[in-house]
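FW: tagging you since you asked about this chain on Friday. Here's the raw sequence from the shared folder, copied in full. Didn't touch anything.
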Amino acid sequence: MKIKNLAIGSAVAAAILGSSIMTSTMAFADTTLALSSWLPPRHPIVINAIKPWAKEVSKVTEGRVKVRILAKPLGPPPAHYDMAADGIADITYGLHSFTTDNRFERSRIGQFSFLGDDAVSGSKAFWNVYSGSLDAQAEHEGVKLLGLFVHGPGVLHNKVRQIETKADMDGLKIRVPGGYISDLMSDLGAETLFMSSGEVFEKLSRGVIDGVTFTYEALTAFKLTDDLKYTMRVPGGLYNTTWFLVMNKGAWEGISEADHAAIEAISGAAFAERVGTAWNGADEKALEGIKKAGIEITDAPAELLESIKSLATVREAAWADAIAEDGFDGAAALQELRTQTGVEY
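HL: got it, structure written out here
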């Protein structure tokens, strides 16, 4: 009787185990994730980075995980991080500087001046350092951090005058994306106005702002060439912006470990290279349109460059002091980032 009961019990246990495995397999099967995209649908980053990555997710997971890019964003650009954290969207991307609090304080490492002229090396270095010694995932609560990247060198464009001295900045109303460049522009004497990329065309054409801190590609992507006359650049970039690609934590946990590994393999450093390549190509193409529009591009004179370096050094030191309170060595991390991008500073 005991043997019979044992046999029955084993059969029941096997049935339960089989049911559990089947349920688990079904739970991980055929997941479709909604990605909210706020850049223009034909933006180079959407076409050459976001969409190819989404398509490759399906490929590497053998169709078990699909990413559907929504036709319209589910909210304004600054809301996209919280939309992912709150589960309004499964996947989002955006700028760290669009959040007005200090939750991404360590991300500022990728926003400083003189970081590099190449979006590939810049994005890969930002991923390596911020996700490494600066523990980026800890600052991205409620989400799985899939990607980090920067654009090409940030440049100053305006329609009033060529910037040759610090005094030339006085009184200019300049659009900024928040973060470090907002502080630097104020230090240089400009009046800063925060706004997302999509708002710039109207504000610039109506004279609400005199200029913008933007990449080269943004001038053509957002149709700004007719309303700008002067561009000032510095070696390594006047500034940069840092970006994230994130997935809702619950959505991530609903995917199998095997698919986690497959998605991570095409994200992180691989995604940084993909998006960096897209941005480099967009900048190169945009420069043709900028020159054709007659916008005058000049390098910052030596005296102005020294002023920028002096102000930048103060901002870098203040940032390093702030994160040191949490046990992070900002100066060493910044030096490592510049070493990886090949900038001598």
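FW: The CA atoms of residues 173 and 208 lie 8 Å apart.
HL: agreed, and Residues 1-27 have pLDDT under 50 and may be disordered.
FW: great, closing this out.
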